[in-house]
Amino acid sequence: MPPRHFSPEAPQPFALWLTGLPAAGKTTLASEITCRLRDLGLSVCLLDGDIMRRGLNADLGFGERDRAENIRRAAEIARLLLDSGIIVVAALISPFRAGRANAREIAGAGRFLEVFVDAPLDVCRQRDPKGLYAKAGAGQISDLTGVGSPYERPLRPELHLRSDQNTPQALADEVLRRLRDEGRL
Amino acid sequence: MPPRHFSPEAPQPFALWLTGLPAAGKTTLASEITCRLRDLGLSVCLLDGDIMRRGLNADLGFGERDRAENIRRAAEIARLLLDSGIIVVAALISPFRAGRANAREIAGAGRFLEVFVDAPLDVCRQRDPKGLYAKAGAGQISDLTGVGSPYERPLRPELHLRSDQNTPQALADEVLRRLRDEGRL
Fold first, then answer.
1. Residues from B in contact with A at Cβ < 8 Å
2. pLDDT tens, B47-102?
3. What ipTM describes this predicted complex?
4. Residue B22: how many CA atoms within 13 Å on its side-chain side?
5. Is residue A147 part of a domain?
6. How many whole angstroms separate alpha carbon B102 and alpha carbon B96?
7. B163 an active-site residue?
């Protein structure tokens, strides 16, 4: 039998909901946080928007209605996971305030932490690791968030992180410090 | 800080996919298995068809196409969970062989265990804890599996359990014994 990693369950599981522009660094940060929490022996599930769009949400497009459904499904899964004692780290653009408010309601307000991964549009456009901004510039994508489709900045996120001014490691430090301060770890 | 329950992660997570007629005892057995696995300190998520239909799958009906989508979504979630090292116990009627085969493919064949929770239709009809068979008899539900809609029995399930002849406790014993014998626990 393989060796085992003995692990505590989360006393009060929570969902970290990372929102931000494409290329703001959500997935990188989510992966870093997930690894750190797993290193603490916690049970964590990463819900990444891109991965979900290749599987569960492969039937959805990028119109307003489908974007809302994309978020709804992720939030419903977060609820199932939280109800099973599993911590959720979600990385989704989730551009609209109403969609994020709906996600908060579905997951359960007391355990939903909105994390704004904030980098200026110009920085995201320069990074552009998936070439999305280039495609939008060439007219091949009409509804990219930040270009052809709006991004509504969070008004009162639980955490506001400047991902253009800090490394993912430093931001993950900040998230974990905050979780500890709140007694969630 | 609340006390913690120190837990091993599953070395090779797996999905137990409980299929069977309405009222065959899937949810009861799934809950029992989930508790036992958690008592071993494992990280487990229960995916119950009824619960999912109130949340994630609230937009779906019971036609053939929506039933397939219901199963597809559950299987995609199972994949996400397994990829995060979390054991899945799914309880869904999943009446069609093609749907279950699709679920197996999505979740990953080597980690998908089809568990046929088998009780004769007459027994299920007599139990009828949710009054579904009564409603179908009164013509209020036209597409109940086993009555107005077919149930395709598994041809080669990993486990075939007779839920009319055994208690849920005895069946859970059998499931755990089998998992141990296969080196999955």
1. 1-2, 4-9, 11-12, 41, 43-47, 51-52, 55-56, 59, 69, 73, 76-77, 79-81, 84-86, 106, 183
2. 999 999 999 999 999 988 999 999 999 999 999 999 999 999 999 999 999 999 99
3. 0.87
4. 21
5. no
6. 10
7. no
Helix residue ranges, H only, B43-143: 49-54, 64-83, 97-107, 121-127, 132-137
Whether the Cβ atoms of residue B44 and residue B34 lie closer than 8 Å to each other = yes
Q: Which residues of B touch A11 (CB under 8 A)?
A: 1-2, 4
Task: Tell which residue, A33, A74, A81, A35, has the closest CA to residue B86.
Answer: A81
The pLDDT of residue B25 is: 97
Give the DSSP H/E element, type plus range, for residue A68: helix A64-83
Domain tally, chain A? 1
| Enclosing domain of residue B145 | 15-181
In a domain, B76, yes or no: yes
Write the pLDDT tens digit of every residue in B97-116.
Answer: 999 999 999 999 899 999 99
Asked if B43 lies within 8 A of A86 by C-beta distance, the reply is yes
Residue A128 resides in a domain: no
Interface contact flag, B106 A55, Cβ < 8 Å: yes
Ranges in chain A, pLDDT < 50: 1-8
Closest chain B residue to the Cα of A53, Cα to Cα: B76
